[in-house]
Specification:
Length: 186
């Protein structure tokens, strides 16, 4: 979905779950697709069970407002009574630009800076920055990272937003994914 910020007039985007690249997202054994009245999209993705979690979206930064810093937010819910596997293991998130060169995909992922977040609020103390925030629309969010859109954007540039937990291969269940939102911060 597309909107303009009420105060600045800058572009905002929300990429629904169907627009995301979800590893094994079309395999019913791992993910299901459901409609939820509290979602702005016709369907959300609901995690049944995986050990390897990878969700990402890739866009052209030319669709964004220039000279603007954007925050990328993963929007989700944990399903009470069905959620397992996110209690003590953080997910890693990243927002980064890469260039389209000779058809190569985004190289050097091992060298990428990642942010760490817990998708489920824990009972014991953690720095507030690594815990999810409640939104006013009944969903939760974590800030995946930030991206500054320059005045000049190379046409070969792509922007990727990624959430992953691929190191601790224990079972993960009960995550409802609405999407990834890009909002201007300035």
């Amino acid at each position: 979905s597309f909107a303009l910020n009420r105060w600045s007039g800058k572009k905002c985007y929300m990429f629904g779950a169907r627009a995301l690249d979800i590893a094994w997202g079309n395999t019913p054994q791992y993910w299901t697709w459901r409609s939820r009245r509290e979602s702005r999209f016709p369907e959300i993705a609901v995690l049944r069970e995986v050990r390897w979690l990878l969700i990402e979206v890739t866009i052209k930064p030319t669709i964004l407002t220039r000279n603007t810093t954007y925050g990328a937010y993963f929007v989700y819910k944990v399903i009470v009574g069905e959620q397992h596997g996110f209690e003590y293991t953080p997910v890693k998130t990243s927002v980064y630009e890469f260039k389209e060169e000779d058809g190569s995909e985004d190289p050097h992922l091992d060298a990428m800076p990642f942010n760490f977040f817990y998708l489920k609020a824990l009972r014991f103390a953690f720095p507030r920055e690594v815990l999810p925030n409640a939104r006013g629309d009944s969903w939760m969010e974590i800030e995946m990272g930030r991206y500054y859109v320059n005045d000049y954007i190379d046409e070969r540039s792509w922007l990727k937003m990624r959430l992953q937990e691929i190191e601790k291969l224990h079972t993960k269940t009960g995550l409802a994914v609405e999407g990834i939102e890009l909002r201007p911060l300035d």
